[in-house]
Design a protein that fits this description.
- The protein is an alpha+beta fold and 138 residues long.
- Helices cover 29% and strands 30% of the residues.
- The protein is built from 3 helices and 7 strands.
- Strands 1, 2, 3, 4, 5, 6 and 7 form a 7-stranded mixed beta sheet that branches.
- Strand 5 (103-110) and strand 6 (113-116) form a beta hairpin.
- Helix 1 crosses helix 3.
- The longest helix has 17 residues, at 70-86.
Length: 138
């Protein structure tokens, strides 16, 4: 319940020209294990019925432990990179976040390099969280 309003605020900041999906099947390549449901996906497409490329931000929500979501978020980011390439969108970087709602940690995928921001951002610093998400899309 904490995550959705934050992502909706990002949509509002972009005048609803981006799309937000929650709990959608994002099977990109089953043979590589890039299949399953994503907690949240932000796309630069304004299409709201189907996930369209370019997918730019994925948010993985966990109940207790941020670290338990890092590998899953990285797999989702790799799937988004492949999804974008297949859609003809060569996005330079895919961003990801793992959150328990009150604490956020951010990741970035460029080419085949994953960077993990070792800082944890707390909900009390909501402006920083919104700023990071906004800059990932802008």
């Amino acid at each position: 319940m904490i995550i959705n309003p934050i992502l909706l605020e990002i949509m509002r900041k972009f005048n609803y020209k981006i799309s937000l999906f929650s709990g959608v099947n994002f099977t990109v390549d089953s043979q590589r294990g890039l299949n399953g449901f994503c907690d949240f996906i932000l796309s630069l497409s304004s299409e709201q019925l189907l996930v369209r490329s370019p997918v730019i931000v994925l948010v993985e929500s966990k109940n207790e432990n941020l670290r338990s979501g890092l590998a899953q978020c990285i797999a989702e980011m790799i799937a988004a990179q492949l999804f974008n390439e297949r859609g003809g969108n060569q996005i330079k970087a895919i961003y990801g976040a793992v959150t328990i709602g009150t604490i956020w940690q951010f990741l970035k995928l460029e080419g085949n390099i994953v960077s993990i921001d070792l800082s944890e951002y707390y909900i009390k610093d909501i402006k920083k969280i919104l700023g990071i998400l906004y800059s990932a899309i802008a």
